[in-house]
Amino acid sequence: MAFSFDRQDLIKSQNFIAGRWQDAVSGQVFPVLDPADMTEITRVPDSGAADAQSAVEAARAALPAWRATPAKARAAIIKRWNALILENKEELGKLVSYEQGKPLAEGIGEIVYAASYVEWFGDEAARITGEVIESPVAGRKMFAVREPVGVVAVITPWNFPAAMIARKIAPALAAGCTVVGKPAEDTPLTSLALAKLAAEAGVPEGVLNLVCASREQTPEVVDVWLDSPQVRKVSFTGSTPVGKHLARRSADTLKKLSLELGGNAPFVVFDDADLDAAVDGLMAAKFRNGGQTCVCPNRVYVQSGVFDEFAAKLTERVAALKVGPATEEGVMIGPMINERAVDKILNHINDAVVHGAKVLTGGRRVREELGPNYIAPTVLANVSNQAVLCCEETFGPVAPLFSFETEAQVIAAANDTPFGLAGYFYSENVSRIWRVADALETGIVGINEGAVASEAAPFGGVKESGYGREGSIHGLEDFMQIKYLCQGNLK
């Protein structure tokens, strides 16, 4: 079932530090597995503190020259990187699908999506501006200028191994920062391939450094960056408990933080909605990447008058989704990332059933002859708010349907969570649209739309879903700091 690659040189199995490919100081390695059948793809360094420190030293040494590089020149390098990513999108897409499991069309689509951030921030690099402040007294000139924050540590998840690292690295480079990074232990190969292409594009030695580490070794690597006064910012996408740990550990050096953390997205269908559009939107939002996305709907609220019709339409669509390995034609749901993920999904389904839910389709493992990581996409009806999936991210292809009566009732239910990353709703009533959009306590709201992410839009949450934004001009601002200049005695 393995993919064949025309560019074998893009499959790297070493750390990238100071422009050189190198093993961990310890010589230790760990395997990267194909989630389709759990066979070994390759082995990568299981790095430790010494490797993490080497990356910091390389980034610190490269910072003065990179921040002094004219913005237009930085932009040109970033745009060459974008061009190389797109030239190799099929090869990179296969690599994403190989190590992450998503269908090949989604793998290639993720590469194009990742490149959109590189292109965007390449364009924005040359548009960084300051401000002239009108002085309240004569003989004085006052300015606010934007500067790179310095060395940045980026820590990325496994579900989008290209997009997540691209939308962190690209704005960092555009702002004039240098980077140390750790890709997820399950999916490091795509990130390493992107680093190779960045070097081909002309990113100077030491400006971008990537260190691999197993789940067991990750704390040792990251703690070096958290303790280092040279690292001035941490950008992390992952779970809320880990985000809180990073925030606490960053306090001693007062690092700037961008935290894109857990979600529990509501998806609301009102009785005045276009039901076919709502089903289309839920399919796009929920089942992309097998439901392994931080913004996918975790709770689907359907007004009682249209509940049965919506449930029937959705079940028909979900039951038709083909499950299998990314190499198999027509597959729309690939394997989950590992067996732990499948166990969690099944526990959520079984708990919902214990609390009275009905399985309309799915709810079980499938194609077990291929491996343990395949699960049938699932629709649950009449889910109780006592079910554990009401308060935990399922992170899988499960759509739990809750019935509601009134707008006030569903707003209260949608906001009854410590998380606030994304929310969605469908309605044709203009007044309701603005009421609900204002009332939802989320950083992102999809209104009659299930696909909300864009390089031009700010991505991030509120409450325990974190702070900071990625994408858009706000994502670039997060990698800069403001310096106030005051020149006096000009009379």
From TrEMBL:
<feature type="domain" description="Aldehyde dehydrogenase">
    <location>
        <begin position="21"/>
        <end position="484"/>
    </location>
</feature>
<dbReference type="InterPro" id="IPR016160">
    <property type="entry name" value="Ald_DH_CS_CYS"/>
</dbReference>
<dbReference type="Pfam" id="PF00171">
    <property type="entry name" value="Aldedh"/>
</dbReference>
<dbReference type="InterPro" id="IPR016162">
    <property type="entry name" value="Ald_DH_N"/>
</dbReference>
<comment type="similarity">
    <text>Belongs to the aldehyde dehydrogenase family.</text>
</comment>
<keyword id="KW-0560">Oxidoreductase</keyword>
<dbReference type="InterPro" id="IPR015590">
    <property type="entry name" value="Aldehyde_DH_dom"/>
</dbReference>
<feature type="active site">
    <location>
        <position position="260"/>
    </location>
</feature>
<dbReference type="InterPro" id="IPR050740">
    <property type="entry name" value="Aldehyde_DH_Superfamily"/>
</dbReference>
<dbReference type="InterPro" id="IPR029510">
    <property type="entry name" value="Ald_DH_CS_GLU"/>
</dbReference>
<dbReference type="InterPro" id="IPR016163">
    <property type="entry name" value="Ald_DH_C"/>
</dbReference>
<dbReference type="GO" id="GO:0009450">
    <property type="term" value="P:gamma-aminobutyric acid catabolic process"/>
</dbReference>
<dbReference type="InterPro" id="IPR016161">
    <property type="entry name" value="Ald_DH/histidinol_DH"/>
</dbReference>
<protein>
    <submittedName>
        <fullName>Succinate-semialdehyde dehydrogenase / glutarate-semialdehyde dehydrogenase</fullName>
    </submittedName>
</protein>
<dbReference type="GO" id="GO:0004777">
    <property type="term" value="F:succinate-semialdehyde dehydrogenase (NAD+) activity"/>
</dbReference>
